[in-house]
Amino acid sequence: MAVETEKKYRLDKRSLVEFTARLAELGATFSNERFEDNYLYRNGSVDVSSSVLRIRKIAGTTFLTYKERMKSDSDFKTKIEHETLVSDAVETEQIVAKLGYKLAVVYEKHRKTWHFCECEVVLDELPFGQFMEIEGEPDEILKVEKLLGAEELEVETRGYSRLTTKFGQLVDGVYEARFDHPRASA
Q: Measured between alpha carbons, how far is 182 from 127 in angstroms, rounded to an integer?
């Protein structure tokens, strides 16, 4: 079982730029920058609070992911995650539909990724806001948080799927947050 632990912070545009510079100053290793299309499916429910099946498309590459949130009262989000590369996005979408899953949420994201200490740090821009995630072991996350000066930032415990249902737009029964359409801001 793969387990992912992360802490997410809400940013504004200015702090997004500041954290980009701070990561460089601290010697973090820049990994990549990418644009993602995320398609989340539910089996009989639009509730995206506990588990989700996701198809993520990044520059011609497609991943199928299952995520299940583990209960926690802390600011850390811990999820069971299984992910695999798929060779044919259209066929994968057909398989998911034939299994009874319905498209519930679509969101787009610009992501920049760094490796710092023993963590992955990502800066994300979505149509409804900017965010930073630090992923790793809890003690390493707190170490990186302190080094970055992020201890006072607003922690965001909701996932992007839940944020999309709150701040996105309902289009033909699917919650969407896309950059090419005006959206409400968080």
A: 8
Interacting residues of 81 by C-beta distance below 8 A, sequence separation 6+: 2, 3, 4, 65, 66, 67, 68
Residues 6+ apart with CB under 8 A from 139: none
pLDDT in tens, 21-37: 999 999 999 999 999 99
Q: What is the DSSP letter of 28?
A: P
Q: pLDDT of 159-183, one tens digit each? A: 999 999 999 999 999 999 999 854 4
In DSSP terms, 10 is beta-bridged to: 131, 154
Sign of the torsion angle spanned by Cα atoms 78, 84, 89, 90: negative
Q: Answer yes or no: are the C-beta atoms of 128 and 12 closer than 8 Å.
A: no
* CB neighbours of residue 41 within 10 Å: 20
Q: In this structure, which amino acid lies at residue 27?
A: G
Residues of the chain with pLDDT under 50: 46, 182-186
What are the residues whose beta carbons fall under 8 Å from the beta carbon of 185, sequence distance 6 or more?
Answer: 128, 129, 167
The distance of Cα 147 from the centroid of its chain, to the nearest Å, equals 22
Residues 74, 144: contact at Cβ < 8 Å? no
176: which strand partners? 106, 169
| AA letter at 88 | D
Q: Which of 98, 99, 94, 68 is nearest to 81 (CA)?
A: 68
Contact partners, residue 95, CB within 8 Å, separation at least 6: none
